Amino acid sequence: MNDLVAALANVVGAQYVMHDSASMAPYLTDWRGRYTGRAMAVVRPGSTQETADIVRICASAHVSMVPQGGNTGLCGGATPLPDGGSVLVSMARMNRIRTVDAANNALVAEAGCTLAAVQQAAEGGDRLFPLSLASEGSCLVGGNISTNAGGVQVLRYGNMRELVLGVEVVLPDGRVWNGLRSLRKDNTGYDLKQLFIGAEGTLGIVTAAALKLFPRPQATATAWVAVPDARAAVDLLSLLRDRCGERATAFELVGRSALDLVLKHIPAMRAPLAGAHDWHVLVELADAFDGEALDGMLERTIAAAIDSGLAVDAAVAASIAQARAFWALRENISEAQKIEGVSIKHDISVPVSAIPDFLQQTQQALMALWPDVRIVAFGHLGDGNLHYNLSKPGAVDNAEFVARTQDVNRIVHDRVAALNGSISAEHGIGQLKREENARYKSEVELDLMRTVKRALDPHGLMNPGKVV
Amino acid sequence: MNDLVAALANVVGAQYVMHDSASMAPYLTDWRGRYTGRAMAVVRPGSTQETADIVRICASAHVSMVPQGGNTGLCGGATPLPDGGSVLVSMARMNRIRTVDAANNALVAEAGCTLAAVQQAAEGGDRLFPLSLASEGSCLVGGNISTNAGGVQVLRYGNMRELVLGVEVVLPDGRVWNGLRSLRKDNTGYDLKQLFIGAEGTLGIVTAAALKLFPRPQATATAWVAVPDARAAVDLLSLLRDRCGERATAFELVGRSALDLVLKHIPAMRAPLAGAHDWHVLVELADAFDGEALDGMLERTIAAAIDSGLAVDAAVAASIAQARAFWALRENISEAQKIEGVSIKHDISVPVSAIPDFLQQTQQALMALWPDVRIVAFGHLGDGNLHYNLSKPGAVDNAEFVARTQDVNRIVHDRVAALNGSISAEHGIGQLKREENARYKSEVELDLMRTVKRALDPHGLMNPGKVV
């Protein structure tokens, strides 16, 4: 092991290799604190060449590697296993924006750039990089690519996968694949970049990416809408897209208990509407210009929705401050839940049209066993993606309930599977959902995944124990 | 061989297996007439199960297979090799639209549906399926997926790859992978569908797909704009997207010689503008509604372009008929070229910002050798994708010139490679560009492609001699 550390230090400099437990600690526990692993060393390359040299050295020594970005993942995908047999490769030092090409609507960023830095670089070229997440100040773009990150603008702009034009990857044997093309169209064989997007570092280490940029919207309109039920929310989405087309950039569902928790725990939050409603939707439109016209369009659409019974009340934000206040309600749900206590969390998706059935059937099945279960449902309805978190009032009751996570997962995920949905819509698999995933994937699909893994990483050196 | 035919007939019925040369002939020559192959049999399955049975039978007999859609491909990807060692599997009978889910903005179509049938099914649900190609009445959606088809709306909606939510595939050993999920977000492991999109049938046979739908635009505005040079066209694109945002759905460049050929050979075509201009752009905006506002927006943008020297003259279509007439000029370029005679064709892409350099450098290099070369350049400038076709006036001269295709390709493709572009932007590789592709791809990338091919099709049974 000392030989290995020396060899790594020889590549990156001794100051960028850690092997005492105190310095390594921040890298070895995941953000949620669910997983703590061990590592032979933490190494921090400063360039693609250094990354390649590290991988070659580890591969020669038959030592596995765990790539890590901002360590903000929610499934333990960047935390090494407890066996301590891996070297953790932190990509944070590779944080250069290599190029911004506004006329081509593209930039090239290294894996260690924060998402916020990428957004800023786009803005510097008068363009938008639309990926937006709660952790954007600290998550790294290499991690966003490796987990195919989602967030609040997927409805309009797609997931990270749709935003990547090309990647540079260090393969498990240390070779560098330069796939950094910034092209909209390229049909010269298999689209290899797709293998590495969402692979959670199990097939290689993404060192840089060419990313798509968009015109910057100059105007937004935001509304908080109370809807009678989830089916009305789905129909409201159709109405919105019929009337406003692709201006619809966000359509976030917020259930009553989610709003209540925010109002209870987060200071200075206020309900936008009088009275209590079971379901709310946060709607945002964006356009190249002309905010007044956009507000008018949103108001007319909501009026039509109220006329036809798809909405019961609504507030259109009259100022940027008010729009931010609406968004703060949505963005503080996770924090409010954390303060309230532990819960059983799910990150599911189904076809948008199946959301009402999912909610109704799952609630029924859960309440048959736990009549007082508290369902905190919220999220990206426009993408069919809900965060569906469950707890019970009262600490003792809740502790008992949480101990039955497996049974709860079975109920929730069986409903998801029956509706041809996904048990991990945007957070990935990591360590957290590997077994659960194996339960719901077909044998053919699991075998295809293993085939890809074996083909690209025959010695199983990349991020062992994750995904497959 | 008779055993094999009998076994295939046993699966699909004798009327759907052909093995005499007259019945097989239409399947064995590609649309352009460049390639003619031979086959042991042509078999036409009517279901996924029949396709799987056919593949299992062929695999057991160690007989390779060539999947074929509408036989409209431009690179010979669906034409078997002359060795006659393959069974051709025509997917045309699998032509059911399985489901249309307007609320989820998705439909499921079998591989044998024409693209036009998919567009119509979407319209039936008051939605848009945006892929649009010259051959849409006869190309099949399985072929569109297998070639990652492009076309004229990529600027706004992406290539076929971006429009596919899920696929059903018969693997090379006859197993069926049901990946027909209609989800916007699904991070449960490797995104396996990406392997089969654009693989030209070399990794399996796509039998069905879940496809994305969009709100139907109710209004379009169309203009024919003369620009002083290619750089002005690129800047006009930026201006257009800044001012009109994502309304910009098409931005097609038409060079002077392309327009001249259409006016010469196609009846009833008229130049939209007085005077001769070296470069034109066909611009289209689309929006959910309100055509007048859209026309106004386009007119103001063009006025600003003329003020700043990015455009010299323009006509905004005053009627749908006039818009169609502008489009007819663009769409008849291929036909006009065909009438004029043979030419050396290229389907290239570079970063949009590099288009002016590509045009200038390549013209200079070509004219140094052939001062009277005629360059017909046109296409999807918004995607950085040009069709760049070369010929010489005079049949004898031209025949000599065409005989030097290899030298011409070297000049054109070397420029493309130097600008980090693609030698096949939207048509694929097939047989036509396999060697050329191997010349320009890095050894690492070629090796990755071969690794994927070996992993999924270890016995080399799927569409031999294509892509890799």
TrEMBL record, chains A, B:
Pfam families cross-referenced by the UniProt entry: FAD-oxidase_C, FAD_binding_4
Domain FAD-binding PCMH-type: 35-216
Keywords of the record: FAD, Flavoprotein
Protein's name in the database: FAD-binding oxidoreductase
Taxonomic superkingdom: Bacteria
Flavoprotein found in the keyword field: yes
Family to which the UniProt record says this protein belongs: Belongs to the FAD-binding oxidoreductase/transferase type 4 family.
Organism this protein belongs to: Aromatoleum evansii (Azoarcus evansii)
